[in-house]
């Protein structure tokens, strides 16, 4: 069986978990705290970052959310993640990059650092200025998703794709940290409710991090 080395609040781990769930791929979760830099994990991924997925029997090790997702999209026909003509596939990849790089860098990473790492690892108080800025930027990304959904059924076009699962993975982390203001974002809120209702999302919504409690609406489909 596949073993997925992941951290519960890592959006890239969540992205992979959602895709594995959609494709019905059996796997075992192995929690990995990246800041511990365990020798055994560094041997798997010298960058020391999650996620990493391993099939010990086949001798396969896949590193990073996008290589992992594309591997399973190429080898498992169920629920294609990058589909359509060349233009649509390019748009799916563009949005995946937008959420994995821009949204993560501007909002998810600073929020994780201030509200999660400082509390669990360094025992520091969060910087309220950084928190305010990250929450403001996150709200701007909700505006952009509203715009996309004003013109499309799903984020990248007419069909559900990796763009939707990637965005949902990152937003789920921000939402867990209580940093999303859903007011005035009906389009995105309705879309996210649909994403949360998918069976692959249930394990994520049921998990809780030690000492970090999500807002009451976090695991509710109707919120």
From TrEMBL:
<feature type="domain" description="GST N-terminal">
    <location>
        <begin position="1"/>
        <end position="80"/>
    </location>
</feature>
<dbReference type="InterPro" id="IPR040079">
    <property type="entry name" value="Glutathione_S-Trfase"/>
</dbReference>
<dbReference type="Pfam" id="PF13417">
    <property type="entry name" value="GST_N_3"/>
</dbReference>
<dbReference type="GO" id="GO:0005737">
    <property type="term" value="C:cytoplasm"/>
</dbReference>
<dbReference type="InterPro" id="IPR010987">
    <property type="entry name" value="Glutathione-S-Trfase_C-like"/>
</dbReference>
<protein>
    <submittedName>
        <fullName>Glutathione S-transferase family protein</fullName>
    </submittedName>
</protein>
<dbReference type="InterPro" id="IPR036249">
    <property type="entry name" value="Thioredoxin-like_sf"/>
</dbReference>
<dbReference type="GO" id="GO:0016740">
    <property type="term" value="F:transferase activity"/>
</dbReference>
<feature type="domain" description="GST C-terminal">
    <location>
        <begin position="85"/>
        <end position="215"/>
    </location>
</feature>
<dbReference type="InterPro" id="IPR036282">
    <property type="entry name" value="Glutathione-S-Trfase_C_sf"/>
</dbReference>
<keyword id="KW-0808">Transferase</keyword>
<dbReference type="InterPro" id="IPR004045">
    <property type="entry name" value="Glutathione_S-Trfase_N"/>
</dbReference>
<dbReference type="InterPro" id="IPR050983">
    <property type="entry name" value="GST_Omega/HSP26"/>
</dbReference>
